Amino acid sequence: MDAPQLELHDVTPGVTVRSSLSPSRAGDFLACPLRYRLRVIDRLPEPADAVMVRGTLVHAVLEDLLAEPAESRTLDQAVKLLPTEWDKLREEEPRLAELFTSEQAADETEWLASAITLLETYFRMEDPRYLGPHTREEKISFEHESGLTFAGIVDRIDIAPDGRIRVVDYKTGKAPNPLYEDKALFQMKFYALVIWRTRGILPTLLQLMYIGDGSFLTYEPKEDELLATERKVLALWDAIATAVERRDFPAKKSGLCKWCSHQAICPEWGGTPPPFPEIVPEVPLVP
User: Fold this and answer.
1) Measured between alpha carbons, how far is 117 from 120 in angstroms, rounded to an integer?
2) What is the pLDDT of residues 135-190, one digit of tens each?
3) DSSP alpha helices (H): ranges in 37-74?
4) Are the C-beta atoms of 244 and 11 separated by less than 8 Å?
């Protein structure tokens, strides 16, 4: 099935959406179409979340740590990188200053200590001194013949001497209930599909590292499964294109609502969303 190209004449005058989709935004639409709309089309600001920012911080530390010489990739060095990376994040995103006021120095110290705990868990899971990562935080993309671009950012890609590829993603939360493992693996299959299409090599192993509890979720992808993932993404984009054309992004109430910052304007919670925007600049659907 072809994914439609959304051009100006296809949708409400003034609204243009770039034909690109990432696992994060795909997950938003599947979980709640309204949340997707508010994030991608309306682009409403969201307050900084301490748990999510901590995850970003730990990712940044691990990225820089693996750039160090192998013998320097120690826990002590990772801990030393924390304040530097935290300063960088706040400089890049001024809104992070709202997380901790000058009167909340003790809370900030405790928060940084919790990041150290995550790094300690990471070092119990693997020894980075023996890793030879091919890439870190790599932006990957593939344009399907339909015009839809599959895009994302992979935490780490390892390539063995014999050419085998391992795709690694860090999660600073805990592993999901086995009933929800397929949902967790969707992101990894998405990445594997893009790597397969762009490199011509099927990844050997997909590995999710849940640093929150020190567990792994691994998977060996098969060609037919990745083709099924491709069809799913194309069908999802078709649904998004239809929603844009109809200006209809219904809210979907679920247990995820308690983490949503848009409850006040959600119909499921007695709120009213803003009018569908008449003028929206070209909006990428990637993180």
Assistant:
1) 5
2) 999 999 999 998 899 999 999 999 999 999 999 999 999 999 988 889 889 999 99
3) 50-65
4) yes
